[in-house]
């Protein structure tokens, strides 16, 4: 690319697409990601409402010497925001949404910027579920392109493995439909390769046969963490693949917007789904219920209600985070975790989470993509609210402190969707898969037009 970036020319070349340039009245609102701690300042923000407009923006950016960063919601904006976006068009997919469910084929076709909330709702109308994550307003695209850990995942694997076709606008502006039959390498690469290969404008995912599931949460005061954390870790050693759970130690400020059971409190929460009959699920949960939680919402609920279970923030929020994948935790590992976030500590974190891995999460899927499994026992995810730059610095230090304290139990691998900093991306993949992924990227985007939050 030898041309000088020309933002005004970009706006002229993309005559129909909504474009915001720095200084325009709409620029600031358009550039703010879901994670409002991230101050992304691109050369332009484009909000296409059709595939043709996406193609237009990609071609115009290439012609004007700019690069393109696809973004759906900005939940995963943190790593992108670490670099300069001065020569980058932020291509936001929020104007390209929609879901079509084909119950006969057992699939849903989802447009590029669609949120899980809409897909879960549409699938539920046909008595089906999908491999969504904890938050309703995360987009399908960023989630599945980064693997995707669902509360159904220990039985059904990474969400990326449920993808059967992806429609993507590549660096020359061509629309390609990648399936197992055509452009197979591209489908393989996209499933785990993130936004490095093009702008995803549609994804086909498989449906699961659940209209309702046994799911919910158990809640204790943090004073009980010394009993609850070791008991849950012990429980996870033998829990069947039908159960996918998370344990979080959480701290909430005393604010009236929160319900009394959260406001001003430090708590321990175990939540998740158990894909069994009510009787079997109750038997499985008995050792955890024996710890007498003050709140127990586990029971059979509609698949749509699983989106409310994890208490994720309902609005865009400023947050910083750190992450590691842990192997099995022994008593010393549990003690190290509790020393950081257990009773009597002031970690400064909003939560420290151990997300249960193993089961189908850990098994390579021969029909899957570049990222088809995550070896390990737990995904550690530490998050702090960061309403100011000073709070962000303190929050990053607090999150890193927990990750460092658990380093003796850490593995080298990382989960892309839980990684909020720039890292060596070969850590996401097995063996030669990173090199193979780079080869596909070099073939489809030799000029490195696309900028992903996790660049290859
Ligand atoms: C509250 C909350 C809850 C979460 N829960 C879970 C969970 O349960 N399980 C889990 O695995 N993760 C979870 N995550 C992490 C989340 O899945 C990732 O941040 C994911 O990348 C978000 O996808 P997005 O498209 O919404 O975000 P974005 O920031 O828009 O996208 C992230 C990256 O994906 C790529 N991308 C996005 N859309 C496109 C597209 N249309 N075409 C090409 N590339 C694209 C880009 O490289 C982009 O930088 C959670 C995050 C938050 C903040």
TrEMBL record:
Keywords: FAD, Flavoprotein, Oxidoreductase. This is FAD-binding oxidoreductase. The keyword Flavoprotein applies. Its cofactor is FAD. SUPFAM superfamilies: FAD-binding/transporter-associated domain-like (SSF56176). Belongs to the oxygen-dependent FAD-linked oxidoreductase family. Residues 38-210 form the FAD-binding PCMH-type domain. GO terms for molecular function: FAD binding; oxidoreductase activity. It holds the Pfam family FAD_binding_4. The keyword Oxidoreductase applies. InterPro entries: FAD-bd_PCMH (IPR016166), FAD-bd_PCMH-like_sf (IPR036318), FAD-bd_PCMH_sub1 (IPR016167), FAD-bd_PCMH_sub2 (IPR016169), FAD-linked_Oxidoreductase (IPR050416), Oxid_FAD_bind_N (IPR006094), Oxy_OxRdtase_FAD_BS (IPR006093).
């Amino acid at each position: 690319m030898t041309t000088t970036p020309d933002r005004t020319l970009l706006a002229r070349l993309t005559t129909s697409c909504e474009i915001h340039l720095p200084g325009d009245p709409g620029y600031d609102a358009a550039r703010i990601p879901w994670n409002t701690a991230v101050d992304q300042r691109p050369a332009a923000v484009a909000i296409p409402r059709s595939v043709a407009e996406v193609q237009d923006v990609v071609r115009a950016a290439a012609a004007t010497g700019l690069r393109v960063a696809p973004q759906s919601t900005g939940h995963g904006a943190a790593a992108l925001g670490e670099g300069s976006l001065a020569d980058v068009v932020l291509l936001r997919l929020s104007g390209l949404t929609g879901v079509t469910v084909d119950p006969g084929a057992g699939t849903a076709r989802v447009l590029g910027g669609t949120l899980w909330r809409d897909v879960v709702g549409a699938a539920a109308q046909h008595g089906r579920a999908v491999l969504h994550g904890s938050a309703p307003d995360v987009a399908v695209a960023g989630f599945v392109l980064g693997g995707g850990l669902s509360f159904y995942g220990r039985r059904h694997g990474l969400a990326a493995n449920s993808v059967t076709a992806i429609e993507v606008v590549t660096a020359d502006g061509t629309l390609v439909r990648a399936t197992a039959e055509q452009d197979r390498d591209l489908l393989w690469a996209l499933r785990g390769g993130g936004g490095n290969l093009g702008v995803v404008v549609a994804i086909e995912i498989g449906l699961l046969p659940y209209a309702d599931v046994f799911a919910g949460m158990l809640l204790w005061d943090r004073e009980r963490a010394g009993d609850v954390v070791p008991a849950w870790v012990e429980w996870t050693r033998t829990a069947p693949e039908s159960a996918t759970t998370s344990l979080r130690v959480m701290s909430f400020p005393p604010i009236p917007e929160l319900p009394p059971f959260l406001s001003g409190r430090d708590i321990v929460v175990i939540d998740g789904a158990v894909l069994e009959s009510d009787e079997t699920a109750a038997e499985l949960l008995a050792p955890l219920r024996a710890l007498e939680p003050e709140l127990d919402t586990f029971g059979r609920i509609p698949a749509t209600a699983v989106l409310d279970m994890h208490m994720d923030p309902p609005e865009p929020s400023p947050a910083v985070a750190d992450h590691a994948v842990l192997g099995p935790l022994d008593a010393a590992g549990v003690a190290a975790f509790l020393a950081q976030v257990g009773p009597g500590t002031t970690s400064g974190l909003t939560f420290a989470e151990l997300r249960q891995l193993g089961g189908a999460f850990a098994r390579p899927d021969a029909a899957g993509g570049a990222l088809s499994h995550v070896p390990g026992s737990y995904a550690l995810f530490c998050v702090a609210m960061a309403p100011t730059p000073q709070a962000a610095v303190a929050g990053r230090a607090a999150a890193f402190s927990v990750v460092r304290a658990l380093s003796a139990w850490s593995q080298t691998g990382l989960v892309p969707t839980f990684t909020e900093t720039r890292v060596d991306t070969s850590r996401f993949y097995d063996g030669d898969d990173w090199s193979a992924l780079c080869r596909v990227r070099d073939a489809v985007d030799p000029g490195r037009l696309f900028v992903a939050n996790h660049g290859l």
